[in-house]
Amino acid sequence: MSSASHTAMPMQTPAAGLSLGLLRPDLQAIAQWIPEGSKVLDLGCGDGALLAWLQSQKACKGYGAEISHANVLACLNKGVNVIQTNIDGGLNLFSKNEFDVVVLSQALQATHETEMVLKEVRQLGKRCIVSIPNFGHWSHVVSLARGLMPVNKRLPYQWYDTPNHHFATTKDFERLLAKLGFSIHQHAYLAEDQYGNMVEVKRWPTLRCTLALYSFY
């Protein structure tokens, strides 16, 4: 992520009647982990789909933080409060323990100072929810054994043009959380089934899951 000045954007009329099934699979799981009426901060919120659903269906309030101007406009169109800022350097806008839940979904690998970001995120909320792509998936292992960096629908970029700075397996990430003294409250390992639906992986998650979700405090 490149640096950017932060800009607060006003909230429009909230969206209503949104279907959970319209959310990205990891956001569907995250949405179900967030209690009704929570104050939520969604870091790297993209087009604001998660916050729009939480506002409409769970009476949640809060902010999204996003660096992309196009995504900021998409958030506004969904009625989401959004602040244009860079996660790597813009979290001092928020007060400690200001939020019930802080969400960072598939954005951590694009940060430069990953450990510092996690420490700051933990200070902002009573609970944190993070999702990461699992670089330890068996298809990635096979690709590396062939001498090539993995390129697929989950990691669609070539090694030389990827926006991602860090890759981790589920065990890598869990060890980092332990190192930082964080306690995992809930986790889920997900992978696509033969029909393209995301299902929970119970056995050998580091090799079989494509996406991991963690709730910690």
Report on this structure.
The protein is an alpha/beta fold and 217 residues long. It has seven helices and nine strands. It has helices at residues 25-33, 49-58, 69-77, 114-124, 138-145, 170-179, 205-208, and strands spanning 7-9, 39-43, 61-66, 82-84, 99-105, 125-133, 184-192, 198-200, 211-216. The chain has a nine-stranded mixed beta sheet with strand order 1-4-3-2-5-6-9-7-8, sandwiched between helices. The model is unreliable at 1-16 (pLDDT under 50).
Q: How many domain regions?
A: 1
Approximate shape: globular
Reported CATH architecture: 3-Layer(aba) Sandwich
Question: What is the string of helix and strand elements?
Answer: EHEHEHEEHEHHEEHE
Helix content: 25-40%
Beta fraction: 15-25%
Q: According to CATH, what is the topology? A: Rossmann fold
The average pLDDT is 88
The number of helical segments is 7
Rg over CA atoms, rounded to whole Å, is: 17 Å
Termini Cα gap: 26 Å
CATH superfamily: Vaccinia Virus protein VP39
Strand order of the largest sheet: 1-4-3-2-5-6-9-7-8
Annotation, overall tally of beta strands: 9
What is the subunit organization of this protein? single chain
Level-1 CATH class name: Alpha Beta
Strands, helices and their partners?
Layout: E1 7-9, H1 25-33, E2 39-43, H2 49-58, E3 61-66, H3 69-77, E4 82-84, E5 99-105, H4 114-124, E6 125-133, H5 138-145, H6 170-179, E7 184-192, E8 198-200, H7 205-208, E9 211-216
Parallel strand pairs: 2-3, 2-5, 3-4, 5-6
Antiparallel strand pairs: 1-4, 6-9, 7-8, 7-9
Short synopsis of the structure:
With 217 residues, the chain is of the alpha/beta class.
